[in-house]
């Protein structure tokens, strides 16, 4: 079968590899769609040794069951499913509590991260990582597993603060951000302020339900302040889907006293914490900072339910498998609107 693999650190190639067979407890899935994620770029850019090679990338997968391994019940060929990407140890406190995204033994691991992922014609996954998607379009189902699940988990963490009529700022209207806006629209009555450098991304945010859009730049904080009011008031919740120094500065400058700042994007920025009175504070008092990671299996089931109900729809740009490197280049240059999805 054809697969797009990181053959050595930083090197992406389309290669022919043997089609895997489902082992005990595993299911062989014919890949219908796989979303491309900024995290894949971090994997490609990572220092040697952090991720195994060779490895088939792709951690945002949906497909059709091709074959089941020994001991697998409940799945038969032809069933359609989305893949929960995290493979936790199953025995630590995080996994035992049902939060495999808090696995304490996991290196940044999972399907397409520590074992072969979905950028291939077939992928082998543990049966317990599959969730049913019914007759949903697989190019819609695939992005739900990360671009949908990650902001959904962030919204779940912040939900007590997302009271009707309060303000939520979403920074970065890319793959995750455009889903965050829809999840907020579908499950809350907050006032959504979308922030991005790109006018096209802001137009997308408006179509997805954002009440206000603000172009990122030197005047962004002032524009947001005109909407949320002066400090110590501010945005009750800020979800930063970028996570570079500039976006974190905007986030901490507009969050309200007692607000919630959720750092979702892995942009490598630094957030200084200095809540004192004798120097300019970097964060308002009583502010919570959280670093959500992906989400839980139960949350993915809820995200799929929102997708099947038509309440959230990924804005997708599709590519055949052989154009995967080009799609990653577009993603790297910030030229993908919504989610790039490969259809093997
Ligand atoms: Zn991802
Ligand atoms: Zn664990």
- Class by helix and strand content? alpha/beta
Bound molecules: zinc ion
Unreliable stretches: none
Write down the overall mean pLDDT: 95
Structure report:
With 344 residues, the chain is of the alpha/beta class. The chain folds into two domains: 2-132 and 314-343, Quinone Oxidoreductase, Chain A, domain 1 (Alpha-Beta Complex), CATH 3.90.180.10; 149-290, 3-Layer(aba) Sandwich (Rossmann fold). Helix content is 27%, strand content 26%. It has nine helices and 16 strands. Strands 3, 5, 6, 7, 8, 15 and 16 form a seven-stranded mixed sheet that branches. Strands 11-10-9-12-13-14 form a six-stranded parallel sheet, with helices on both faces. It has a three-stranded antiparallel sheet with strand order 2-1-4, with no helix packed on it. Helix 3 packs across helix 4 and helix 3 crosses helix 8 (297-308). It is globular. The N and C termini lie close together (10 Å). The mean pLDDT is 95. The structure holds zinc ion (ZN) (2 copies). The site of one zinc ion has 4 residues, from loops.
